Amino acid sequence: MQIDGQATALNSHVLVLNKLWMAIRVVDARRAFTMLFKDLAEVIRVDDGSYTAYDFENWADASDAAHRDYAGFAANEYEWVRTVRMQIAVPKVIRLLGYEKLPRQGVKLNRRNIFARDRNRCQYCGKHFNTSELSLDHVLPRSQNGQSTWTNLVCCCVRCNARKGGRTPLQAHMKLITTPRQPRRNPVLGLRLGADKYASWKQFLDQAYWSVELK
């Protein structure tokens, strides 16, 4: 399969389920199409709570029909890439045909995930900021043996960080808006669930023990 350089569509995110219908990771469309083309996975289309499974050939045929307004799903709900012969919709969910395991790794502790967990909101003043205007604050300062952990790091604007300095919130007469906790799934994924584009993912991600990591 030869695909034109449609970077936006090919970088779209696709949720991957294992054989038992449990979410295990998110991949880009390039990787998803590779697994489909090699018959390692099938497309799962979610429509009003019902599931329809497609192998690669059937998905390509359904995509072509939808793109030509013949039948099938709503073409405007998908990103599209062009092959030599046709247009094909980027699936939103695929299911592996021979993999039952769940990933063991937890959510990585990094700046991006903390900003996503706190939704770019300063945990002291409550205002939202661009990432470039935010920093990380140790609730219990490192000067007082505070560690870099999920429960001790929060998103903080520059002004509040300077005001707090090397003190605890109590010592600085400041109050945390929310208690920092370790998320049970990737917080960046939680942000995507708020978009209509990824609404079909939600029913596969509601159970707390599914820790999905973006790859």
Q: Can you walk through the features of this model?
A:
The chain has 215 residues and is an alpha+beta fold. It has 2 domains: 7-103 and 188-214, no CATH class; 111-164, DNA Binding (I), subunit A. It has 7 helices and 10 strands. The strands form 3 sheets. It has a 6-stranded mixed sheet with strand order 4-3-7-1-2-10. Strands 5-6 form a two-stranded antiparallel sheet. The longest helix is centred in the N-terminal third of the chain and has 12 residues, at 56-67. The chain is elongated, with a radius of gyration of 21 Å. Residues 1-5 and 207-215 have low confidence and may be disordered.
Structural class: alpha+beta
Provide the helix percentage.
10-25%
Number of strands: 10
- The succession of helices and strands, N to C, reads HEEHEEHEEEHEEHHHE
Strand order of the largest sheet: 4-3-7-1-2-10
The total of helices stands at 7
Mean pLDDT: 82
Shape: elongated
Low-confidence stretches: 1-5, 207-215
Q: Count the domains.
A: 2
Largest sheet: 6 strands, mixed
CA-to-CA gap between the ends?
Answer: 23 Å
Radius of gyration: 21 Å
Strand content: 15-25%
Q: Which descriptors apply to this entry?
A:
215 residues, alpha+beta, DNA Binding (I), subunit A, 6-stranded mixed sheet, two-stranded antiparallel ribbon, 7 helices, elongated, disordered N terminus
Helices, strands, pairings?
Blueprint: H1 7-10, E1 13-17, E2 23-28, H2 29-37, E3 41-47, E4 50-54, H3 56-67, E5 80-82, E6 87-89, E7 93-96, H4 111-117, E8 134-138, E9 153-157, H5 158-164, H6 187-192, H7 202-205, E10 213-214
Parallel strand pairs: 1-7, 2-10
Antiparallel strand pairs: 1-2, 3-4, 3-7, 5-6, 8-9
